[in-house]
Amino acid sequence: MKKIFAIIIVSIFLFSAQHCRAFSFAVFGDTQSFKGSKSELGKSVKSLRKSKNADFLMTLGDMCSGRKCVKNLPKWKKVVNPLNVPIYPTMGNHDLVSLDFWNSLFSPPQNGPADFSGITYSFDFENSHFVVLSTSFYGWHLINAAQRAWLEEDLTANQKENVFVFFHATAFPVGIKINNALDSNPEERDAFWQILDEHNVTAVFSGHEHMFERRLIDSSVFPGAQNSIYQFGEGNTDAYSIPKPVQSVEYYYRSKSYLVVNVDGTQITANLYKPGGKLLNSFTFSKQTAPEQTFSPPPNKP
Questions:
Q1: Which of 74, 96, 144, 267 has the fewest Cβ atoms surrounding its Cβ within 10 A?
Q2: Predicted pLDDT at 3
Q3: What domains lie within the chain, and their CATH numbers?
Q4: What is the pairing mode between strands 212-217 and 229-234?
Q5: Contact predicate 160/187, CB 8 Å
Q6: C-alpha span between 267 and 162 (Å, rounded)
Q7: Across-strand partners of 205?
Q8: How far is residue 215 CA from its own chain's centroid?
Q9: Helix (H) or strand (E) segment spanning residue 148
Q10: Residue 216: beta bridge partners?
Q11: Per-residue pLDDT tens for 180-196?
Q12: pTM for this one?
């Protein structure tokens, strides 16, 4: 009888572990043009709050600009706080503040490598693992050897189904940021991407390019790749727009937007919204199955 009871308990535990609840997270890109709660950032917060469809918020850096960040980052946080969800920040090349200030403002996880306190870290949520990296601290537009060594250990220890990786400067830029992102240090970029490829991460998210773009990084883009990884660039929640891409992408949108990612097991749906809440694009994929396009407006519509 005890043996049967033990088997039932183990079965329930395994079922629960394999059937985590579906959840969603929001992604805000560059917002350095924001000016208070009536800005595009404020509109994004208002529509996201109304929809109540995000368990937490990921940012992709350049939340403010330059020397005024010490003054403006607290204002940014005040605009975003009404969401009443955890905020996991990514530092961009314009977020020029000390690590002490950054950590006191955002209180991010502190499990990253030495000297990257609060700007390189990871955490788990339901069936997914989240990794945030720095592309500007201790080196311009690169993820250095110290972070890569930590990343290798972190992903090796991971036991979650999905892995999402966040950083500011795009790995494979498609527009005017070509040669002004991680590709400006190609050997470092390739060493970093090799780790992502070997661990078959689910998707990466970056800002920096001041547009939204979705691009599949496979062996045609990264020679020798064993897996295909979607790169989502969300770089214009409240920044200035740039010209259309010159590299091939599956979809792009040049005006203001934010992203909500729904996770249901290994099925991922990325929903792109205007700041006011209008759905622009919905894309469903899994790292193990072919992608399915569910809705898409003309990709070059501003």
A1: 74
A2: 52
A3: 23-295 (3.60.21.10)
A4: antiparallel
A5: no
A6: 9
A7: 166, 232
A8: 14
A9: helix 145-157
A10: 230
A11: 999 999 999 999 999 99
A12: 0.90
